[in-house]
Structure formats: structure tokens, C-alpha cells
# Entry
Amino acid sequence: MTLTVGITTRDRPAALARALASLACIAHLDPEILVFDDASTVPVGASAPEGSLGARVRVIRSDSAAGYIVGRNRMVREARGSFVLLMDDDAALIDGQAIERAVAALERDPALGAIAFAQAEVDGRPWDDRMQPGRGGVAAWVPCFVGFAHLLRRDLFLALGGYRERFVFYGEEKEFCLRLLDAGYRTLYLPEARVVHNIEPAGRSGPRYLRYVTRNDCLNAMYNEPLYRLAWLLPARLALYFRMRRAWSIDDPRGWAWVLRELARNAAGVLRDRHPVSRATRREWRRLRDAPRPYRHPEAP
# Structure
């Protein structure tokens, strides 16, 4: 089996039904389909419209809310496919041939470790370039994919340790892609491979988002930066909390204290598991962030 699709969900049955229905466009690829039910109030299957869960869909249910990062890791571990397409439940496929081309790119080019997709509206229109993994509508090496939908090499993902479950929410893909780059692999953005990202308001909170953005940016630095750089990186990233709180008009006056407590609580485990990436990797990440590199297949003239 070549392709496994994994979808994480919690208490969003309508969104999940749309995501599952959208997989009809890749039925010709005969994918394995996994759904991680993160302790939904109404278990997945009981809440899904009749016919949306076929014989090929396997539901992995967690009895407690483990979080989507834990769910993604578990689905990749249990996947039978060589490549795993991970999706949030608010994502939906619109072009099966684009997914087929993405799988083919990984099959042909051993330097590629992951595929990034373009975020699109329900009608297929792409989001603004500023919200995409790359710019200019050109296939390119980029520093990172957007986690709502992405394609991975299963064995490589597992060899690198998967996502950091300590992150809980937000930023895990950026940290993983940094390790991917450090291991000598690239992330390829395919702008023609559009996937609907129909953001669901259910379960979203401005203060929670702001806190985890700050917390996880700091954890990323603690895992991957040399110790001498942490002396200024951590204060700089903590300062962003206040700037973002003002810019987004979020009422969260004590959020900074929560972030500090979280960093202190996680410090011992992070310091035990940290493995800083090389200076060359950090430099290449910044180059790709500032100017994604147009991609040419190695067989191209």
C-alpha cells in the first residue's frame, strides 16, 4: 500500500463528514483511511452521516483528550502506507490528480521529505500568498508546510521521532521541519495542489492560541538552538506575546505568567531531549523563509 490518509477530529462531526467525503477524488489511489477520534462527546461513527464511513475507514478512538499532535503521531505509527497524508477535519481535498502528483514527487525524488499544500477557499480559490507556505505560485523548496494538510514519508517521520507531543497545540510542524532540514531533507511546496481549509470556529480561543504560539516558539528554541543563543532568543520571543496581544486585541492579561510557568514545567524534559540543529541548518532555514527556492526535479534538463 502506498498512501494512508489520517484525519484528526474532536466534536466536529459535520466537518469530519465533509473531509471524508472529499476523499472520493483519490479513490483511484485506494488509500488506507484512518480517523483519530480525540475523545469526541459523541463517538465518531455514531455521529457521522450514513455512508460517510466505509469499510476502508478505521477509527482510532482516544478515551481522553490527548490532542491532535498525539493523534497524528499514532496514525503515522499505525499506517500501512509508505506515504501519509495528514489532514485536519476542517480540510477537504478538491483535486485528486494534485495529490497523485504529490505522491509521485516523493517517489521520484529521495531528497524530498514532505510536501506542502496550498490553502484554498471552499470554491478552490487560493488564499493570499502571505498565508501560504511559499510565494509566487511556483513549486519551491520552503522551510515548512502548514499543518492543516501535508504529505510525509512515513519511515522518515518515525525515524526523526515524529511531532513533539510536548507542544500540545500549534507550531509542531515548524519544529519538525527544522529537524527534517537538519537531517538533509527538503519540504516541497506545490501551489497547484490546493486543499480547502474551511476554518471551524468550534474549539478555537484567542487567548489559548496566543499563549501556545508564545510557549511553543520558546520550546522550539529550547530544543533546537545552542544554549548561548537562548539568552536573547527566549526574552525576544516572550516579548512577542505582548506585541501580538495588543495587535490582535486579545484580553489575556495574565497569559505571560502562564507561559513562564509552562516553560519552567517543561524545562527539564526539553533539556534532556534537546539536540540543537547545525548553524548551516539555521542559515538555510532563514534563506528559505526569506526566498523559497524554485524547484527543479533532478531529472529535468
Remarks:
- Residues 3-197 form a domain with the Spore Coat Polysaccharide Biosynthesis Protein SpsA; Chain A fold (CATH 3.90.550.10).
- The chain has nine helices and ten strands.
- The chain has a mean pLDDT of 93.
- The longest helix spans residues 227-248.
